[in-house]
Design a protein that fits this description.
FSR family fosmidomycin resistance protein-like MFS transporter; MFS_trans_sf
């Protein structure tokens, strides 16, 4: 009989962290490709003579596709895990990018954006579950590392657009579809690890799904978290979708410089996500949510009145503070509903996309009728809804 030696805790932890890093890189690949859509808005707005409403509809098509499907996929995979569904997300996103590169009509742009949204819907629930399985109990750290990969991907998208797509035209989007191939290869390897974990855990007792609070309080807390997510993502959509247009119109900067300013904001957002997770593990998710949602209010209110220099500074500060909340929100929700990792990931990642998409469409209409500067003045009041954080319950200590 062969004796199998258990790995030391140090090796096991290293293996887990290594896997989370791989999943985070896959998230980066995924979100680089997704962010290319909004990053090339100035280009396709000119190429297809689009108005802001049509730009908003493109964003909504992408995000609503992901929003509607992610919770469904999360619920299904909670019951029937599908490790090998992960590489399919790269296939869908690859197809969407190829369509964007070769689109000959606005309709094809919509189809391409919906396929990119489908890739997001497939990727996030299962990838988030893999990160949690590999966390070793450090859920905030794992979730933030996973998410920071996506944020860095979103930040790199505008840079790739500025230095590759804008100088070479819309067809050069196809060059970047090669990223999907790397994602496919990496996710195939992650899927094998995940499938092996499923086989190892097949005969183990099911995870405890006892709610930490009465059902009514859990549902109320989830509703508050959803509302906070909505507020955060509508505001962030106003920056990520229209920030380039705002600085171009108000400060007369070039398209390329506007993309660099957007990169500053998105990079700061990535840093905020990474900081939020470990702080949440140490101080509690509720504390991070409080600090993030309420701490951003004064800076958001100052943004519409700032000059170019201070607009850049405020964008960085807002990106760091506001983005630190999301990993804490996801972890807090997962603790509220144990054993439903896929459903929660799908709900919050999906709802984040959906809320941002609806917000982008509405803001596009306002930008067409009242101007982009009015939109940023209006959005500056959204973080005030963060006062609802006071209604979040404290979880029993064993639930974090």
């Amino acid at each position: 009989m062969t004796t199998v030696t258990s790995p030391s805790p140090k090796i096991a932890e290293t293996t887990a962290v290594s896997l989370i890093v791989v999943v985070a890189f896959c998230h980066m690949f995924n979100d680089i490709m997704q962010s290319l859509l909004s990053a090339i808005y100035p280009l396709i707005k000119t190429n297809y003579n689009l108005d802001f409403r049509q730009i908003g509809l493109l964003t909504m098509t992408f995000q609503i596709t992901a929003s509607l499907l992610q919770p469904v996929i999360g619920i299904i995979t909670d019951r029937w895990p599908m490790p090998y569904s992960l590489p399919l997300s790269s296939v869908s996103t690859f197809t969407g990018l190829i369509l964007l590169a070769n689109a000959d009509s606005y309709t094809v742009l919509l189809i391409g954006s919906s396929l990119i949204g489908l890739g997001s819907a497939i990727f996030h629930p299962e990838a988030s579950r893999v990160a949690r399985i590999a966390s070793g109990g450090r859920h905030g750290f794992a979730q933030s590392l996973f998410q920071v990969g996506g944020n860095f991907g979103s930040a790199l998208g505008p840079l790739l657009a500025a230095f590759i797509i804008l100088p070479n035209g819309q067809s050069s989007v196809a060059w970047l579809a090669i990223i999907a191939v790397f994602g496919f290869i990496a996710l195939t390897r992650v899927s094998r690890w995940y499938a092996e974990k499923q086989r190892q855990n097949k005969n183990k007792p099911a995870a405890d799904r006892t709610l930490p609070l009465p059902q009514g309080r859990v549902l109320f807390a989830i509703a508050i978290l959803v509302l906070l997510t909505t507020t955060k993502n509508v505001y962030m959509a106003s920056l990520s979708s229209y920030f380039t247009f705002y600085v171009i119109e108000k400060f007369a900067v070039s398209v390329q410089n506007a993309q660099l300013i957007l990169f500053l904001f998105l990079g700061a957002s990535a840093a905020g996500v990474f900081l939020g997770g470990p702080i949440g593990d140490r101080m509690g998710a509720r504390f991070v949510i409080w600090f993030s949602i309420l701490g951003v209010i004064p800076f958001a209110l100052m943004m519409p009145y700032a000059n170019l220099f201070w607009t850049c500074i405020l964008a960085v500060v807002i990106g760091i503070i506001f983005s630190s909340a999301f990993s804490a929100i996801v972890v807090f929700a997962q603790e509220l509903v144990p054993g439903r990792v896929g459903m929660i990931a799908g709900m919050f990642f999906g709802f984040a996309f959906g809320a941002g998409g609806i917000g982008a469409a509405l803001l596009g209409d306002y930008a067409d009728t009242k101007g982009i500067e009015y939109v940023y003045w209006l959005c500056s009041f959204l973080p005030l809804l963060g006062i609802l954080t006071i209604l979040l319950p404290r979880l029993p200590k064993k639930h974090g």
